[in-house]
C-alpha cells in the first residue's frame, strides 16, 4: 500500500502509517521505496480522547453547566473542522461558537449538526448566508434588530440569535446601560427568536463581579416585564476556573477545551487537571558535529565551547513555533529532551544534542505534547515568557493535521 501525503494527513492512529520510520544512518538519508514516506515537515496530531476528557473536566468544574465550545481561529490552531467533529459527539457540548462568519459557515458545511453561534458583526450578505445555514447570529449593536428583521423578511423565516452585551469589556456588544429598551422591543419582535444573551469578562477579579452584577440587574429588569433573554452565558476558561458565580446557565470556554490552562496552570491544575489536546511534531533533517568555536544560526548567539553534536528540525516561526523558544524551550526526541539553541528561523530550529550523536535523521521530535512536562505548552509558555494563547493561536493553519 502506498501512502501519499494526503493519506498520511487523514490517517488515524490505527492506520499503517502510524509513525513507522524509515531506518536511516546518521548523515545519510536513505529512504527505501518500501517505507511510507512520512514527511520531514511538521504536523499536528489532534488528540480526541484528551479533548473529550477536557470537556468532561470543564463540565464538572462548572457544576454540570452545558458548554458552548469556542472554536474560533481555526479551533485554536488545531483545525476547526477536526475539533468540531470531536465536539459533535460530546453530550456536554450544547453548541459551538466562532467569531468569523466564514468559519461558522464552513463548520456547518462540514456537516456539524449542533447549534453554531456567530459572535461578530455581519454584512447583509453574510447574514443571509448564516441564517440560511441555521447559524445563530449576535444582536451586537442597536441597529442589529433592524438588520435581522429585514433578513427574516427576505428569507421568510425567523432569525435565531443571542444578544451580545457589553458589561465593561468595551470591545463588542450593546452597552448594558442602553440595552433594556432595545431588548424589550427585540423580545416582542416575532421575526427574531432570542435563544440567549451573553457578555465577556475582563478577567479582573473585582471588576468581573461588577460586570456580573450589571448582567444580572439587566436580566432582572427584563424579567420584571415578563420577558426572557433565554440562556445567559458569560464564563470563558478563566472564569470556569476562577469565578463560579459567573457560570449562569451555560459556560463558554475555548482554550481549556484544547488543554491550555488560561492563566498560570499551577493553581488550575489543583482545581482540575486537563490533558494537552494536541502534539506538534517534525522529523530531524540534519545531524552534525560542531567543532570548538563553531556557531549556530543568525546572530551567532550560540558558540560551541567543545565538540558538540547538533540536530536541525524543519520547523520555525513561520509554522508558529515561537522565536522565544531559544529562551529555555526543550524538544523531546525518544525519551530525551534537547534544548533549542541559536535562533528559531522562519523554517528551522536547531537543537543541542551533546557529546554523542544520540539522534539520527528521520527521528520524530515532539515540540509540544504531553509525553513529558517540559513539552507541555503551558510549561513552555511560562518558560519562554509568552502567552499560552499565542502558543495555540499562532500555529500556522496550513500545518497538516491528523486525528489520533
Ligand atoms: C475567545 C472567546 C471565548 C473563549 O475564551 P477562552 O479564554 O479561550 O476560554 C469566549 N467568549 C468570547 C466572546 C470569545 O471571544
Describe the structure.
This protein is an alpha/beta fold. The protein has helices at residues 5-10, 48-61, 72-76, 80-88, 101-109, 124-132, 144-155, 176-186, 205-224, 237-242, 266-271, 377-384, 388-393; strands spanning 43-46, 67-70, 93-98, 116-118, 135-139, 159-166, 174-175, 192-198, 231-233, 278-283, 286-290, 295-296, 302-303, 308-313, 330-333, 336-341, 349-354, 364-368, 401-403. The chain is 30% helix and 22% strand. The strands form 3 sheets. The protein has a 9-stranded mixed β-sheet with strand order 11-14-17-16-15-18-10-1-19. Strands 2, 3, 4, 5, 6, 7, 8 and 9 form an 8-stranded parallel β-sheet that branches. It has a two-stranded antiparallel ribbon with strand order 12-13. The longest helix has 20 residues, at 205-224. The model is unreliable at 1-25 (pLDDT under 50).
Question: Could you give a short description of this structure?
Answer:
This protein is of the alpha/beta class and 404 residues long. The chain has 13 helices and 19 strands.
Amino acid at each position: 500500500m502506498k501512502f501519499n501525503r494526503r493519506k498520511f494527513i487523514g490517517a488515524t492512529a490505527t492506520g499503517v502509517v502510524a509513525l513507522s520510520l524509515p531506518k536511516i544512518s546518521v548523515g545519510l538519508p536513505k529512504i527505501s521505496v518500501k517505507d511510507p514516506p512520512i514527511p520531514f515537515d511538521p504536523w499536528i496530531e489532534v488528540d480526541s480522547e484528551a479533548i473529550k476528557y477536557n470537556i468532561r473536566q470543564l463540565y464538572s468544574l462548572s457544576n454540570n453547566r452545558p458548554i458552548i465550545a469556542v472554536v474560533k481561529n481555526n479551533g485554536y490552531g488545531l483545525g476547526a473542522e477536526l475539533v468540531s467533529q470531536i465536539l459533535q459527539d460530546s453530550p456536554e457540548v450544547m453548541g459551538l461558537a466562532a467569531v468569523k462568519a466564514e468559519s461558522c459557515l464552513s463548520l456547518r458545511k462540514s456537516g456539524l449538526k449542533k447549534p453554531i453561534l456567530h459572535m461578530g458583526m455581519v454584512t447583509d450578505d453574510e447574514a443571509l448566508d448564516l441564517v440560511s445555514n441555521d447559524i445563530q447570529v449576535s444582536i451586537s449593536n442597536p441597529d442589529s434588530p433592524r438588520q435581522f428583521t429585514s433578513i427574516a423578511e427576505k428569507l421568510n423565516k425567523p432569525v435565531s440569535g443571542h444578544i451580545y452585551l457589553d458589561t465593561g469589556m468595551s470591545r463588542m456588544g450593546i452597552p448594558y446601560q442602553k440595552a433594556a429598551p432595545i431588548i424589550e422591543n427585540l423580545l416582542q419582535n416575532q421575526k427574531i427568536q432570542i435563544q440567549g444573551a451573553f457578555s465577556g469578562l475582563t478577567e479582573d477579579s473585582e471588576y468581573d463581579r461588577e460586570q456580573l452584577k450589571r448582567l444580572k440587574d439587566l436580566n432582572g429588569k427584563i424579567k420584571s416585564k415578563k420577558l426572557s433573554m433565554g440562556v445567559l452565558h458569560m464564563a470563558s476558561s478563566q472564569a470556569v476556573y476562577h469565578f463560579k458565580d459567573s457560570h449562569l446557565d451555560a459556560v463558554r470556554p475555548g482554550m481549556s477545551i484544547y488543554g491550555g490552562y488560561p492563566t498560570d496552570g499551577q493553581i488550575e491544575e489543583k482545581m482540575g487537571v486537563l490533558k494537552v489536546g494536541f502534539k506538534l511534531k517534525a522529523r530531524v533533517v540534519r545531524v552534525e558535529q560542531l567543532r570548538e568555536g563553531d556557531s549556530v544560526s543568525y546572530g551567532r548567539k550560540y558558540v560551541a565551547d567543545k565538540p558538540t553534536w547538533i540536530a536541525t528540525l524543519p520547523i520555525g516561526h513561520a509554522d508558529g513555533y515561537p522565536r522565544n523558544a531559544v529562551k529555555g524551550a526543550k524538544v523531546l526526541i525518544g525519551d530525551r529532551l534537547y534544548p533549542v539553541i541559536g535562533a528559531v528561523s522562519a523554517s528551522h530550529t536547531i537543537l543541542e544534542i551533546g557529546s554523542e550523536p544520540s539522534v539520527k535523521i528521520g527521528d520524530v521530535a515532539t515540540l509540544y505534547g504531553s509525553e513529558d512536562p517540559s513539552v507541555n505548552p503551558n510549561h513552555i509558555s511560562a518558560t519562554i515568557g509568552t502567552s499560552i494563547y499565542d502558543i495555540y493561536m499562532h500555529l500556522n493553519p496550513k500545518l497538516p493535521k491528523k486525528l489520533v
